[in-house]
Amino acid sequence: MPVNTQFKKGVLELIVLLSVYKKDMYGYELVSEVSKVIDVNEGTIYPLLKRLTNEHYFETYLVESSEGPPRKYYRITSLGKERGRLLLKEWNAFHETVNNFIKESETYDER
């Protein structure tokens, strides 16, 4: 079942921050990693990477590639780690609140 576009927008930044927290990644690698969780394309990820870099959550560096031009890698900064922790805390609280509401509304399916 496809995920609602608004749901994806709301959690995409968190998924990208957590992915780069695990290891430095280049753009296409990050698209592949995020796509394991939600369906995204390069046109969605690259503007987000640019914004996160401009906001100092990521820093970039180039690595030579045997398959073409150098790749731009993204590394999370201490500010990015802080942002990731905040978003994760907010996500967990939101998720718990929504799930509790759904559990309390289980009779909805029976109508």
Automatic annotation (TrEMBL):
It comes from the Bacteria. Coiled coil: none annotated. InterPro entries: Metal_resp_DNA-bind_regulator, Tscrpt_reg_PadR_N, WH-like_DNA-bd_sf, WH_DNA-bd_sf. Residues 17-83 form the Transcription regulator PadR N-terminal domain. Gene3D superfamilies: Winged helix-like DNA-binding domain superfamily/Winged helix DNA-binding domain. This is PadR family transcriptional regulator PadR.
